[in-house]
Amino acid sequence: MSEYKTIPTKAIKFSEVEEWHYKTDVSVIGYGGAGACAAIEAADAGASVTIIELAAAPGGSTALSSAEIYMGGDGGTRVQAAMGYNDTNQAMIDYLSACAGPQADADKIKAYVEGSREHFNWLVEQGVPFKNSEYKERAIMALTDDCLLYTGSEKAWPFKDIATPCPRGHNLEVEGDNGGPLFMEIMSAAVTRREIKVRFNCRTLTLIQDEAGSVRGIRIREDLQEKNVLVERGVILCTGGFAMNRDMLKKYAPNLLRCSEPIGNPGDMGTGILMGMGVGGAAINMHEGFVSVPYYPPASLTFGLFINAQGQRFINEDCYHGRVGAYILQQPGNRVYLVCSGEDYGDYEQISYLGASVAGTGETIIELEQELKLPKGQLVQTLQTYNKHAQNGEDPVFHKSAEWLKPLNAPYVGLDVTPGRGAFYPYFTLGGLDTKPSGEVLNPEGNVIAGLYAAGRTACGVPRRGAGYNSGISVGDATFTGRMAGRAAAARNKY
Fold first, then answer.
1. Which of 108, 143, 393, 438 has the most C-beta neighbours closer than 10 Å?
2. Which of 5, 14, 29 is nearest to 459 (CA)?
3. Full strand arrangement of the beta sheet holding 261-262
4. Which domains does the chain have, with CATH numbers?
5. Cβ distance 218 to 208 under 8 Å?
6. Contact status, residue 63 vs residue 184, Cβ threshold 8 Å
7. pTM of whole model > 0.85?
8. For 154-212, what is each residue's pLDDT tens digit?
């Protein structure tokens, strides 16, 4: 064994390894959605596969999610077609490209879209159930067993002017927020059927790299002992993001620390990213993350207005809750309110996930403005201008869709959605290792690091910006890129 302490960012030299305890063609690090799909594809391609999992059971962050999966294009999935939607590759590419903005990876988006319908069919073949039905309410997730729903900003400006809107969120056929557990139950059963080796309660410490720069194995800690695993084709890093690592957040994405609760499992410590960096991999987009402000349900709050410390609107309120969250973090003054009518406040206290307190009420706009301690006249002007145009079904400033436009009438309510003041702000990271669509990890010069792959949130995939996120794109990206990485690793010649 090496004399120095084993850490993720310091790879072990292949020439220094004195003993190999295990051997496999492909080693998959992490047993969530990405890892399961990677292992299945690699095994089906004829490779011997070993999954290394820190926890005592499969699941990862996928098991904690709703497991909505963002899919479409190519005429539509079976469910889209059954519901009368003729989705196209171009519309889906245009939409996802606009979502990612200047950070978009055109090759990854193209590969994801062109493989999306096949990915749906592959998931069905594994046993994942999707009902031919649509959930038409505005909701963060479908709590029924209905499948198809809008899970992003497809129908909101500016996206509706860029690509033909189409629902692409596919919810599993299960009631309640139980999609993640069901998905991982099905995928782990598929892994078991293939007799893929799994080592639970086993921590991957770092990678083993030869003098040519190729990744040749991993060092693990199992039963309180450090052991070496010889990997003859490829290591696939599927260890999630770094939402649970405050030191990494401070270094790379400090703005996310203003949010209230990281989304993920305890293993989301960025270890896979650090291991990739330790052998020369490039980590990109590390400042970005998904940030939610779950202000619907009730959907009626969409009629309200988000107001910053200057008493001004800054977003069209009919867009996706994650887009709103990203914009809130950009506002100056550290005060943000959701202003609505008493009528639209409705049953907020009974059914909302938001948890924001009432910061002010008023029988007039002036009274509400004073209670919220906003600059004199600013909220009055904002609301009067909005109401004037809403009366005619128009929103010339932010182009909110007509179905969510109406004048706001007294009494008024102002909810305090300022980050750090009690409102629920869950988040996770979107940065990771730079990879090809095949999952091959790249160095800063864009060259492939032989024998190393990454998928899911360990890699920087299709979702790149919180302001352009859509529910289901993370599980969609993780499962799809896991498959691509598994297939590519299995296809490599043995050393």
1. 108
2. 29
3. 261-262, 426-429, 289-291
4. 12-64+180-290+426-491 (3.50.50.60), 69-176 (no CATH), 293-416 (3.90.700.10)
5. yes
6. yes
7. yes
8. 999 999 999 999 999 999 999 989 999 999 999 999 999 999 999 999 999 999 999 99
